[in-house]
Design goal:
The complex is a heterodimer. Chain A is an all-alpha fold. Chain A is 72% helix and 2% strand. Chain A has a domain of 204 residues. In chain B, helix 1 runs antiparallel to helix 2 and helix 2 packs antiparallel against helix 3. The model of chain B has no long low-confidence stretch (mean pLDDT 86). The chains are: A mainly alpha, B mainly alpha.
Chain lengths: 527, 125
């Protein structure tokens, strides 16, 4: 028999005594639903007819949870749910503020559109190989990464996302996909490994990986090593987000899989990198970010200028869209370089709008490729006569991503420009405006070549394009209509931007002043 | 002990970097494998080393009596090993499939996604 246990005199509070309120489950439910849905669909993969319906149901439920979560974060501030009743830093927390909830919601909405779109885009063979399971797994990884309050947990979600994206990238097994997947795979694996190195050092320095706890303990750690950790994170998340100069993998791989997969990747994956940059460098390690400020400014300017130049030199439609996407990452980096309320609000709203806009661009590109049977914009032409709605959608999206009013992309760019003026950072101001200008040139040139010109490039460009295939009924109802819905969302938010800007300000305030974030986790702050 | 492990981690990183800079996919795969081990050792070392004292609460005590080995880095590494395994396996299969389909182990000759003779950008508007 053991001797009677001697109770130590004073132990800090370590357990949560009250049961988790039922309403708090909305924090974890999106991830749980997506994971369970993915597992279920994998087990039942022979029932091909209702796979899509099940996946749709799951995503609609996730959207419901996330709307409720967003409402709560807007009303009550950041929300935390801690697993296993151990108070953080022992238990693993999920902590959502307005930014994470809004990003997760946008990701789920894009997935919903992708699921509808896949009805017209995905072969039956790919359904059998588990397309819908992988999409749900991807959504689980992305949502987990947005909502988690623990850095190691973030690493795990990165890997969930990565393995799901590998599966989607090679699905179909065309040569170009294998080629793209090899480049995508190695670089992204390296990026997460660098993140893991940063985590190892961070744990060695602070002894904790809970985000709220890091905010509290980081100021006491030596500045030099902490900056090394922050620099490693900048490299890792920058690679994930495809920031210059570690962006070459994106135009090399994102055009390889099916259009619907491109749209999911373009909408979701790089934005997780952008989110992690904002969270880690502004929220967690602001002192180290301060030291790296000139570097981040340089990276932002380079990304903002280089991306549209790549767009101008590109004739492959989906590769060109990849460069538009990278330009958007430059705008997020610009916000990262100016951590004022306006700058951070601008960066987070831009990332939010880019989730919707980039995905919609890839959706439209998929339809254009389907009509013309080509991937190269030089060989397209005359699509305007075949489908004028498609040409309107494409032009709206080009304007939205470049940041022209009255579309959603305009408001965050305006906030960023205002922030640059406040900050006195003329370089960033010029880069932001130049980025918009060049993106409009590149995007509208694509539009002119694909839609406006009658036929293919060369001697016959004035003759009508005789290789155009009209969209089938299935394409119109399942692919174009949901895409148009997404575009309507972008236009609607652009015309009535008040709620988005307010939410962006709240998100930025919570990221810059972390008191509410820490309080929600229940960690006691020592005076 | 820390010093020896730190030196080992450094050697692993150096080897992995050298292999990853190669053009041959199989060497890059080996590099990725070694890199994973380097990182795991790094986390282990950064979590402080304590030899032969398992973190078990002794009889008659309510909490651990120092010194004891830190269990958390081991949990982190275990997770990282499992995940690393899965991704490494995928990359191995991918490398093999790419070798079969593209008939290339040299990344310089893999130019399907990014054609070598890309057309010049159109000058007309």
């Amino acid at each position: 028999m053991a001797a009677p246990i001697t109770q130590p005199a004073e132990l800090p509070r370590a357990m949560i005594e009250v049961a988790t309120a039922a309403s708090d489950w909305v924090l974890i439910l999106p991830v749980v639903l997506a994971l369970m849905g993915a597992a279920l669909l994998l087990m039942l993969r022979n029932g091909r007819s209702w796979q899509a319906g099940m996946a749709l149901l799951v995503v609609v439920a996730i959207i419901g949870c996330e709307i409720e979560l967003l409402r709560r974060t807007l009303e009550l501030g950041p929300q935390t749910m801690t697993m296993g009743k151990w108070l953080p830093p022992f238990g693993i927390s999920f902590t959502a503020d307005v930014m994470s909830a809004a990003f997760a919601l946008a990701a789920a909405v894009v997935t919903l559109v992708a699921l509808l779109y896949s009805q017209a885009d995905i072969a039956a063979r790919e359904v059998k190989y588990g397309f819908y399971s992988l999409v749900l797994l991807l959504l689980a990884g992305v949502t987990g990464a947005f909502l988690t309050g623990d850095l190691f947990n973030l690493y795990v979600w990165f890997e969930v996302m990565l393995i799901a994206s590998f599966g989607l990238m090679v699905m179909g097994g065309r040569k170009i996909q294998l080629d793209g997947a090899l480049k995508y795979g190695f670089i992204n694996f390296l990026a997460t490994t660098f993140f893991l190195v940063a985590l190892g050092y961070l744990y060695g320095l602070l002894g904790t990986l809970n985000m709220a706890d890091i905010i509290l303990t980081a100021p006491n750690a030596p500045v030099g090593p902490m900056t090394a950790v922050a620099a490693l994170m900048l490299l890792a998340f920058g690679t994930k987000a495809a920031a210059f100069p570690v962006n070459a993998w994106l135009p090399a791989s994102y055009h390889a899989p099916d259009a619907v997969v491109s749209a999911l990747f373009g909408g979701l994956l790089t934005k997780v990198g952008a989110y992690a940059l904002l969270r880690a460098l502004i929220g967690l390690l602001p002192a180290s970010r301060e030291i790296m400020d000139p570097l981040i400014t340089g990276l932002a300017v380079a990304t903002l200028i280089m991306a549209p130049l790549g767009l101008l030199s590109q004739t492959n439609l989906r590769r060109a869209i990849g460069f538009m996407l990278i330009g958007g990452i430059g705008a997020v980096l610009a916000g990262l370089a100016m951590p004022s309320l306006r700058g951070v609000a601008g960066a987070s709203i831009y990332a939010f709008s880019a989730i919707l806009t980039v995905a919609a661009l890839y959706f439209v590109a998929g339809l254009i490729e389907r009509m013309t049977g080509e991937e190269d914009s030089r060989l397209m032409g005359g699509v305007y006569t075949a489908s004028s709605p498609l040409s309107i959608l494409f032009l709206i999206l080009v304007f939205a991503i470049a940041g022209l009013p009255p579309f959603l992309g305009f408001w965050p760019k305006l906030l960023l420009v205002e922030a640059a003026l406040d900050d006195g950072s003329i370089v960033l101001l010029v880069a932001l405006v130049l980025n918009s200008f060049l993106t409009v040139i590149g995007g509208s040139r694509l539009w002119a070549h694909i839609f406006w010109r009658s036929g293919r490039e060369g001697a016959h460009s004035e003759q009508p394009n005789d290789r155009l295939k009209p969209l089938s009924r299935r394409d119109k109802w399942w692919a174009m209509l949901p895409t148009a819905g997404l575009v309507a969302l972008i236009v609607g938010f652009g015309i009535l931007p008040n709620s988005i800007i307010e939410a962006g300000r709240t998100a930025a305030a919570d990221l810059l002043h972390t008191e509410r974030y820490i309080a929600s986790t229940g960690i006691e702050v020592q005076e | 002990m820390e010093f020896a492990l730190a030196a080992l981690v450094g050697m692993y990183f150096a080897t992995a970097t050298y292999l990853l800079l190669s053009k041959a996919v199989i060497r890059m795969l080996l590099g990725v494998g070694i890199l994973g081990n380097a990182v795991n050792l790094l986390i282990f070392t950064a979590g402080r080393l304590t030899r032969e004292v398992p973190p078990i609460v002794p009889d008659g005590q309510a909490q651990l009596v120092p010194p004891f080995a830190n269990p958390l880095p081991q949990a982190l590494i275990l997770t990282a090993i499992v995940i690393g395994f899965a991704l490494f396996t995928f990359l191995l299969v991918l490398g093999y499939r790419a070798y079969q389909e593209l008939d290339a182990d040299d990344t310089d000759t893999m130019r399907i996604a990014e054609p070598e003779n890309a057309p010049r950008p159109p000058l007309s508007y």
